[in-house]
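User: I'll paste a sequence; please echo it back and then give the predicted structure.

Assistant: Echoing your sequence first, then the prediction.
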Amino acid sequence: MSPLRFTAAWLLLFVCGSSPAQEADGLRVLSDLAYKSGDTLTDYERKRCKLDVYLPPTGKGFATLVWFHGGGLKNGDKGDTQDDSVKTVKIARSLAANGLAVVAPNYRLSPHAKYPAYIQDAAAAVAWAQKNLPPHGADPTKLFVGGHSAGGYLALMLGMDAHFLADAGVKLDRIAGFIPVSGQTMTHYTIREERGLAKNSVIADEAAPVHFIRKETPPLPRPLRGPRHGRTRRGKPVLRCSDARRGQQRRGGQDGCRPHPRHHREQAGGSL
């Protein structure tokens, strides 16, 4: 996978089967498409494992972004809901209007499902997009995966632990890049709660993206900069991926990104 100069700020610029329905604004939209099938699916799985697709009004050869909503792995939805503080539909429509396809999946939530079910759902959604978007004009070599908060965590897990995508039939090197916004790099607090651990405990096991940092880590964006040229309001430096890679090289590829804990997600959510 070739290196990319592709940042989460790029995403913010755009926001400050079935025949797609033509919307009033010219976008082509497909709604509530199932991305998993089979007799072994539970009723809850059938309900949650659906996605919406937003296609540009015209053209071919466009990029695709699979974008996962946030909600702490407990809440959230691909549509317009009160608990969607980052406005998934607004993001999707804005990007589609500017020439990108957006795939917005739902996924199973805790406590109805537990680790690694939501990550497996995310991988299945990416596999669906890889197979089904090219017939609508998408360039299969320009498939990106991103999300905000819990969705950013899912994107990170797919990019860092290659086996989830592999199990879904997707080769990691077929993904053009990952765009996690405010995703937890340690084991997600909801997963810690599922295990009976304190929410504020910090671990980095097989459920932590940082656990899988390696020399071949896929392209990741720099975290969003704070208002003081890369610093938060308290003046603490915000670690960039370029800084992390240098640290990784010094440690022989065994360590990774350690964003400052005060690089708060409200900045990203508010901007979006």
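The first strand starts at residue 21 and ends at 22. The beta strands are 21-22, 28-34, 50-55, 62-68, 101-105, 138-148, 177-181.
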